[in-house]
Amino acid sequence: MNRVNKYLLHNFLGTFASLFSTLFLIMSIVFFIQIARVTSYIEITFGELIKLYLFMLPKVLLFVVPIAFFVSLAMTLFRLSKENESIVIFTLGSSPNSIAKFFLSFAALLSGALMLLALVMIPIAAELNSNFVDYKKTVAKLNLKPNQFGQKFSEWMVYIGTQDSDENGTIYKDIVMYNPKVQDSERIIIADNAKFSNTQSGVELSLNNGKIYDMRDSLYNQSNFKYMKIRTTQSESTSKVGNIKEYWLEAKTNNKRKKDLCTYVLVALFPLATTLFAISFGIVTYRYEKGAVYLGSFGVLFGYFALIMLLASRPITAIPVVFLSFMLSGILLYQTKIARRY
């Protein structure tokens, strides 16, 4: 690596670190909000919350790193052009082609690492996350609170009037439960009191002195009970962690897995596909092209991720079409705007 490349890399890494930390914080908040949904039906400690976040970390990095790379490269070269340092770099014998080759090599290594993250680490983390949540459902206390709507127990929406505690645990009073999908009907259960307990295979709800209302079409049925139990059966076995091939083979039949495969692969390839765009936007004659870097960078980001969302259900077509179209467009823009001029 020559001095010019070292100098460019040093400036790039400084900008990248600053932008990465900002994007990482924003994405972390978004994923923490998603994780917080788990606490609506089970109680977890702060340490377990951090563990769930670590399972989400590969996905956070997958989306943050490519965007930070592209924007940082464009802004670094733009700042050097603004301060006329790019002229000095070209005077010292460096050329846009040598800069492009250097950062394309860097982008190829980064995309390779991101591909490993997308296709290997994310499936493993997803299985660990699923196993952890399933385990907590069988051993953790349900996080139900009085006078709050939107709480869940299995497929039931639950409302609790009050609660008391004794040596045997928590007793919930004036409980109302609603399930819209019970044998093609809607069901409401009202009980004077109830108690939750953990069993070896799941969570058991014991209800006392209540009524059951079944509603199907225009028919309404009511039945009374003195004592009733509702059990949720959790999976007795955990998913196999590390079976990456089977995880992605589900994309043949599972639409969500198919969209994930397309999205993760294209996001991983984003640095390599857009490096020449970043160089073309960054190396400018500052007097005449002050705002092109901002508009151009936003346009590339919007166009790339919009195509991912539109074509995610067809990965066999979307992956080569989106990647090659942006790669070839970047080459054309670079040849027209940079190579011929400098």
UniProtKB/TrEMBL annotation:
It is found in: Cell membrane. The chain crosses the membrane at residues 12-36, 56-78, 99-126, 264-284, 291-310, 316-334. GO terms for cellular component: ATP-binding cassette (ABC) transporter complex. It is a multi-pass membrane protein. Keywords: Cell membrane, Membrane, Transmembrane, Transmembrane helix. InterPro entries: LptG/LptF_permease. Pfam families: LptF_LptG (PF03739). It comes from the Bacteria. GO terms for biological process: lipopolysaccharide transport. Signal peptide: none annotated. This is LptF/LptG family permease.
